[in-house]
Amino acid sequence: MYKVALNFEDGVTRFITTLPMETVADAAYRSGLNIPLDCRDGACGTCKCHCESGSYEMDGYIEDALSDQEAEQQYVLTCCMIPESDCVVTVPASSEVCVRSQQADVHAKLTDINRLSDSTLSFTVAGDQVRAMHFLPGQYVNVQVPGTDQSRAYSFSSMVNQSDESVSFLIRVVPEGLMSTYMAEKASVGDSITLRGPFGSFYLRDIKRPVLMLAGGTGLAPFLAMLEKIQQVGSSYPIHLIYGVTHDTDLVEMDKLEAFAAAIDNFTFSACVASEESSWPQKGYVTNHMEPGHLHDGDVDIYLCGPPPMVEAVNSHMQEKGIQPASFHYEKFAASK
């Protein structure tokens, strides 16, 4: 049995004790702490934390969830981490969120399906249980594919609309994908949809300095929810979003970004397209458009959501340029069938 100190980002420390061969995630849950967690088998990366001291065993995870470089830097997946000594683990979430976050099934009705482009669609669900959902802008839920026992993870692309008890999502259209096929070919307004969550430590923190948001593809979704929240509460600090896609047709929800730019005094955004065949004026990757003025000499909070290659590219870019932001929060996702 080993003692593990969980240091949360709001300065609170909680102590748990692991049983023989028990993972940190299971020990925390047994102790009443809902630290970020989803798949429980080393596949999603939701439970990624940093081990400040101590030794441990950690096997059975995939590289998309934790890269070799991250493992060398003592990052851990608490669902796979079995302590071999007393440990100190830094959790990238506040203690308040981890204590109060309770995942539950939410049953709703499909109220809208909108094909935004060849590669992207949005859908909206509504219902009494949706109205009561408590999540932070940036978090995600697992959505069960109707008619199957499979689920897919999607970030909220809006906050809950209390007037019609609805919430929305963006999804990438994946050829032969379970959810893509259902939404594109089988879904009808009124269908029952089950959500489970919320999950994730990628969420908007209190804004205490300038913010740089980096979105890749449907990684735009959590930022739409964040911006909706910022529109409600305001911000005295500048916020800039760089939205990158592969092809011109992948650019979606530009009208919403324009509306946020008009409604939020300190918000600006730009979009770029990687394809050399693009007719969009700004080409390349988001790293090509990260200007010194967006970084405020490191006094900036960076939020990044996109596919694994984009996340790794941004990480490498910041290391090469010696960029050390005040905080760096990221979530990487891979489209699944």
UniProtKB/TrEMBL annotation:
<keyword id="KW-0560">Oxidoreductase</keyword>
<dbReference type="InterPro" id="IPR001433">
    <property type="entry name" value="OxRdtase_FAD/NAD-bd"/>
</dbReference>
<dbReference type="Pfam" id="PF00111">
    <property type="entry name" value="Fer2"/>
</dbReference>
<dbReference type="InterPro" id="IPR050415">
    <property type="entry name" value="MRET"/>
</dbReference>
<dbReference type="GO" id="GO:0051213">
    <property type="term" value="F:dioxygenase activity"/>
</dbReference>
<feature type="domain" description="2Fe-2S ferredoxin-type">
    <location>
        <begin position="2"/>
        <end position="95"/>
    </location>
</feature>
<dbReference type="InterPro" id="IPR039261">
    <property type="entry name" value="FNR_nucleotide-bd"/>
</dbReference>
<dbReference type="InterPro" id="IPR017938">
    <property type="entry name" value="Riboflavin_synthase-like_b-brl"/>
</dbReference>
<dbReference type="InterPro" id="IPR001041">
    <property type="entry name" value="2Fe-2S_ferredoxin-type"/>
</dbReference>
<feature type="domain" description="FAD-binding FR-type">
    <location>
        <begin position="103"/>
        <end position="205"/>
    </location>
</feature>
<dbReference type="GO" id="GO:0051537">
    <property type="term" value="F:2 iron, 2 sulfur cluster binding"/>
</dbReference>
<dbReference type="InterPro" id="IPR008333">
    <property type="entry name" value="Cbr1-like_FAD-bd_dom"/>
</dbReference>
<dbReference type="Pfam" id="PF00175">
    <property type="entry name" value="NAD_binding_1"/>
</dbReference>
<dbReference type="Pfam" id="PF00970">
    <property type="entry name" value="FAD_binding_6"/>
</dbReference>
<keyword id="KW-0223">Dioxygenase</keyword>
<dbReference type="InterPro" id="IPR036010">
    <property type="entry name" value="2Fe-2S_ferredoxin-like_sf"/>
</dbReference>
<dbReference type="InterPro" id="IPR047683">
    <property type="entry name" value="BenC-like_FAD_NAD-bd"/>
</dbReference>
<dbReference type="InterPro" id="IPR012675">
    <property type="entry name" value="Beta-grasp_dom_sf"/>
</dbReference>
<dbReference type="InterPro" id="IPR001709">
    <property type="entry name" value="Flavoprot_Pyr_Nucl_cyt_Rdtase"/>
</dbReference>
<dbReference type="InterPro" id="IPR006058">
    <property type="entry name" value="2Fe2S_fd_BS"/>
</dbReference>
<dbReference type="InterPro" id="IPR017927">
    <property type="entry name" value="FAD-bd_FR_type"/>
</dbReference>
<protein>
    <submittedName>
        <fullName>Benzoate/toluate 1,2-dioxygenase reductase subunit</fullName>
    </submittedName>
</protein>
